[in-house]
Amino acid sequence: MQTIETERLILRPFQKGDAEDLFAYLHAPTASCFFSLKLADLAAAEAEVKKRALDESSVAICLKLTGQVIGDLFGGGGEHEEDETAAVGWNLNPQFGGQGYAFEAASALFDTLFRAQGFRRLYAYVEDTNEPSQRLCEKLGMRREGLFLEFVSFTRDEAGQPIYENTIQYAILRREWEAGEGARRPQP
Fold first, then answer.
1. Nearest to 174, CA basis, from 122, 131, 108
2. Residue 187 carries which DSSP code?
3. Is residue 2 classed as helix, strand or coil in its secondary structure?
């Protein structure tokens, strides 16, 4: 993916030197859907950065002023998924939550996926306990399409049995994005 610049952020591919910032939020993921990405140490973070640097759908969210990686996005990539549809998602370092960075980054990604890459539909899966991501989806103009009961398991109980979570699917069409774009733009 090409570099995208917003008012406060730079969205770019992962690169050498990002491991420490990635480790800062993936050594103890807060959203259960990222538990499998937990990094044990800086060496694991360096390996993950190398992997992400080769993945066109993986995007680092960086502060424009400092260059610090404060989170990541995924979506799109070189190949269109079936029917010009792409899954999207985000993971922000909790230290930077509540400041509008996730909205600013996701808005820029959506705009790029719809306008520059020609996607017709974007969708996201969000656990029903992840209220911040649900609010973000709604602020982005995504509509709630369905609730999947006991859809996926990211953890196990003391007996080793999977703990299944309910998952909500959100989506937005390009025509919906274009029709409501002004209301979703980050405010200066």
1. 122
2. P
3. coil
d(CA 103, CA 177): 14
Distance CA 49, CA 31 (A): 20
Residue pLDDT, tens place only, 81-114: 568 999 999 999 999 999 999 999 999 999 999 9
DSSP state of 96: G
Two structure tokens written together for 51: 């992997």
Question: Within the chain, which residues score under 50 in pLDDT?
Answer: 182-183, 186-188
Contact call for residues 61 and 9 (beta carbons, < 8 A): yes
If residue 131 lies in a helix (H) or strand (E), which one and from where to where? helix 131-139
Q: What's the pLDDT score for residue 156?
A: 83
